[in-house]
Each structure stands twice: as C-alpha cells, then as structure tokens.
C-alpha cells in the first residue's frame, strides 16, 4: 500500500469526530481556513506551496475496501459509520492562493467549503501537505534572495526527514527559484533539472587524484563538475590546470569545480587565482558543505568568487525554523459564523478574502483581510480552484509557478527582499470582519 494515497493517513480524532457528526446528522456546510498564526523569528514573509498535491489528494479522496476492513477489525467504529465511509468522496469547493504567492500571518491561503464530516476528515493531510512545502519554499526563497542570481541546487535528500520529504523539498525549492536538484526521482516526477558532481569516495578509490579526475571526465564529459577538496584543495586545482590540455584534446571541457569544506571564501579566491593564471577562466566555482543563510551571506558580501551553491540539510529541514505555527480552523457552519476564543489561538469568523495593494513603484505595500463579499480595493489573492470536488483548471506547470514566485519576490518591499530582520509588513483587518467577530462574541455570551 502506498501510504500517502490512503485516507487513513490522518489523526484518529478526525474519524471519531466524523462518526459523531454523522450520528447526529450534522452534515451542514462547513467552512475551514488554513493559515499561519505567526512568523518564525527568522522569517519576514512566507511563500505558498503544496496546493497541487492538496488538490490531487482531495480529488482522489476515498477509503478503500482494505481501509474499511481494517477499521472494522479495530473495533473502534460502528458498522453504520463504516458503511458511510465506504461511499464518502470529497464534494466540496476550494479557494486558495496560487502556489508561489507571498503571504503573511493570519491570511488564509486555502479555504475548504464542504459538508462538515468531509471538511473535517481532510484536515490532517491538508495541513501536512501545505505546511511542509510552504515551509521549504519559504526557506528556499531566502536563499534565492541571498544568492543574488548565483546558481542554487538542492542537495538535501539524504538528510530529509523521509523520502517523500526529500521529493517535495526538491519541488518546493524549485518553485521558489532554485535551479535544480540532485534528487533523481524529482527530476522524473516533476521535470526538475538534475545536477550532480562526484563524491570524495570516488577520488579516494584511485591512488592518484588526477587519475580520478580523468576517469570521471571520460565517463561524464558533458556538464563536467569535479570535487577538489578530498585532500589539498589548492594542489587539486593545480592538477586540473595540468590535466585540462589533455581533456581538451579529447573534446572535454570542465564546467565547474565544487568546494565542500574549509574556509570557502579564502579557498574560492585561491582556486580562482590558480585557474585564471592557468587559463581556466571559464571554469565556475561552486560551494557546498553545510551551507545556510549566514554562510551564504558572508560569501556574497565578501565578494568571494563563488558562482553557485549546493544546499542540503539546512534547506530540506528548514533548519533555523523547522515548523510553522499553522492551523486549519472552522470559520462558518450551517450558515452561521464560528470563532475560536482559546487564549493565544483566537480565530476570526466568516469566509475571508485577502486583498493586496501595491505602491507606485509596483511593490507590495499593504494587505487587507476581510469578509469575502466586502468591497475592498486591491488584488484578491484567494481564487476558486475546486467546485463540487472537481478541479476547475488544468494544473499549472512548475515553470508557471516559478514565474509567479519570481514575480512575488520581485514585488516585495525592499527591506523584506533584503531579509532585514527588523522589516515588517502591514496587514489590516477589515472593519466588517472585526464587527462580525464582536457579534459572534456577543451571541456566545448570550447563550
């Protein structure tokens, strides 16, 4: 069984609540919204991702016969409920921000409108899909802004928290503007460009380092990238200068070298000098090896001659902010607005829309969150994507999503683009939304 395709990939309490709803006949229309409550300390904005997987999940949502039989054997649920589950399909509507859209706290990026049991049952997997890719896309967006047009490649599969995480991290980072990934299956599934060099073990397998370089070059002459720091980085650079004429005689050109350890700023400068003196001015220098925001910023700010970065662990684990405080909450049921009042976790009622305003320079300047039928100036960010359980439009290409992400990042206010930790962004709550919240509170007090 492919676990991610199973409706059992959920929390037990979702099934328990669904059984109780159905037993009481609570099948009115419910509205749930997914949003992030607050930004991590190291984030000034987030980038929406994961919608395509969320839509695919809802389109195919069903309990298989094996699922039903297993639930029956568990003894936790009644026969009537299991019979209803066997025929249950998602038949609701979905509004969402397109993938690659910048957003901020308390702005819904997805809204589900469906019969209450359906909207409840899909909660866990929707959060799982939207949270992870949004987390990684938001991290990758920082790297894109920091790199300042240098090449970025995802090296993170081996330390991702599982295979699916590695695949979806490759997708999310590509959406945000990474140039490609080392994860081969991501190349097949998502048509993401693949990049690969060589490991230290390959060099160690040969008695002579230059022999290792030559063997690899002969085997993979196209887009040739060699790893320099297995032993002595500068000595390896000099060996390449000596080897290059023999390779060129066979029509082989070295595209780049990779530095994976040591003082990357100092080593990149010394290698660049050796290459330039030896006639290898067109050979690029790539850096990897535990890179994160601070190291990348230091290299860029120093003017170190690094042409690209391979980023692994810090990307696929979003190491400085490994989780987002996100939620999927009920905002309306059976035609009446609903609101949670838990301390520190209050929600706002009603079906909401996010309107974005832009300044004369074309940059984002403010957002307004209010009720969807309000007349608010700005560009509406939530769009209809599913109706009655069916997708409304064909899936966009990853190229289209990348283009949207690029435009979103380009239209950020400059302090946010510069990743200024003190930068903020104005998000306003509409007056009608606040009035509705007060009215809901008053009615609750009167009950």
Automatic annotation (TrEMBL):
It catalyses: 5-phospho-alpha-D-ribose 1-diphosphate + nicotinate + ATP + H2O = nicotinate beta-D-ribonucleotide + ADP + phosphate + diphosphate. Residues 8-130 form the Nicotinate phosphoribosyltransferase N-terminal domain. One of its GO terms (biological process) is NAD+ biosynthetic process via the salvage pathway. InterPro entries: Aldolase_TIM (IPR013785), N/Namide_PRibTrfase (IPR041525), NAPRTase_N (IPR040727), Nic_PRibTrfase-Fam (IPR007229), Nic_PRibTrfase_pncB (IPR006405), Nicotinate_pribotase-like_C (IPR036068). Catalyzes the first step in the biosynthesis of NAD from nicotinic acid, the ATP-dependent synthesis of beta-nicotinate D-ribonucleotide from nicotinate and 5-phospho-D-ribose 1-phosphate. Pfam families: NAPRTase, NAPRTase_N. GO terms for molecular function: glycosyltransferase activity; nicotinate phosphoribosyltransferase activity. The keyword Calcium does not apply. One of its GO terms (cellular component) is cytosol. It comes from the Bacteria. Belongs to the NAPRTase family. Its EC number is 6.3.4.21. Residues 151-332 form the Nicotinate/nicotinamide phosphoribosyltransferase domain. CDD domains: NAPRTase_A. Coiled coil: none annotated. SUPFAM superfamilies: Nicotinate/Quinolinate PRTase C-terminal domain-like, Nicotinate/Quinolinate PRTase N-terminal domain-like. Keywords: Glycosyltransferase, Ligase, Phosphoprotein, Pyridine nucleotide biosynthesis, Transferase. Pathway: Cofactor biosynthesis; NAD(+) biosynthesis; nicotinate D-ribonucleotide from nicotinate: step 1/1. The lineage of its organism: Bacteria, Pseudomonadati, Pseudomonadota, Alphaproteobacteria, Hyphomicrobiales. Transiently phosphorylated on a His residue during the reaction cycle. Phosphorylation strongly increases the affinity for substrates and increases the rate of nicotinate D-ribonucleotide production. Dephosphorylation regenerates the low-affinity form of the enzyme, leading to product release. This is Nicotinate phosphoribosyltransferase.
């Amino acid at each position: 069984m492919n676990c991610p395709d199973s409706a059992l990939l959920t929390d037990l309490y979702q099934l328990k609540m669904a059984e109780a709803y159905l037993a009481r006949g609570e099948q009115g229309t419910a509205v749930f919204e997914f949003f992030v409550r607050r930004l991590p300390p190291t984030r000034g904005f987030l980038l929406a991702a994961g919608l395509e997987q969320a839509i695919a999940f809802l389109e195919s949502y069903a309990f298989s016969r094996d699922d039903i039989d297993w639930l029956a054997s568990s003894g936790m649920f009644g026969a009537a409920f299991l019979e209803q589950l066997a025929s249950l399909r998602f038949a609701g509507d979905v509004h969402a921000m397109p993938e690659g859209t910048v957003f901020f706290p308390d702005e819904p990026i997805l809204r589900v409108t469906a019969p209450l049991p359906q909207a409840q049952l899909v909660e866990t997997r929707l959060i799982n899909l939207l949270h992870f890719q949004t987390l990684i896309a938001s991290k990758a967006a920082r790297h894109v802004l920091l790199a300042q047009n240098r090449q970025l490649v995802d090296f993170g599969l081996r330390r991702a928290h599982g295979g699916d995480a590695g695949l979806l991290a490759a997708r999310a980072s590509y959406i945000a503007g990474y140039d490609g990934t080392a994860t081969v299956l991501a190349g097949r599934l998502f048509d993401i460009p693949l990049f690969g060099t060589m490991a230290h073990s390959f060099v160690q397998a040969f008695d002579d380092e230059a022999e290792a370089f030559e063997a690899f070059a002969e085997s993979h002459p196209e887009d040739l990238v060699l790893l320099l720091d297995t032993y002595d980085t500068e000595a390896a650079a000099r060996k390449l200068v000596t080897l290059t004429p023999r390779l060129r005689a066979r029509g082989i050109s070295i595209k780049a070298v990779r530095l994976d350890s040591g003082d990357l700023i100092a080593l990149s400068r010394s290698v660049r000098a050796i290459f330039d003196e030896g006639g290898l001015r067109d050979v690029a220098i790539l850096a990897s090896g535990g890179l994160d925001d601070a190291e990348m910023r230091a290299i860029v700010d120093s003017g170190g001659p690094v042409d690209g970065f391979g980023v692994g662990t810090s990307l696929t684990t979003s190491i400085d902010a490994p989780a987002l405080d996100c939620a999927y909450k009920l905002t309306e049921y059976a035609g009446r607005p609903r609101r949670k009042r838990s301390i520190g976790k209050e929600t706002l009622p009603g079906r909401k829309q996010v309107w974005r305003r832009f300044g004369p320079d074309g940059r984002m300047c403010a957002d307004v969150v209010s009720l969807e039928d309000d007349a608010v100036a700005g560009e509406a960010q939530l769009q209809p994507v599913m109706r009655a359980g069916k997708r409304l439009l064909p899936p966009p290409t990853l190229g289209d999503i990348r283009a949207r992400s690029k435009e979103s990042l380009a239209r950020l206010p400059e302090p946010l683009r510069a990743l200024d930790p003190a930068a903020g962004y104005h998000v306003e709550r509409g007056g009608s939304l606040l009035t509705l919240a007060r009215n809901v509170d008053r009615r609750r007090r009167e009950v």
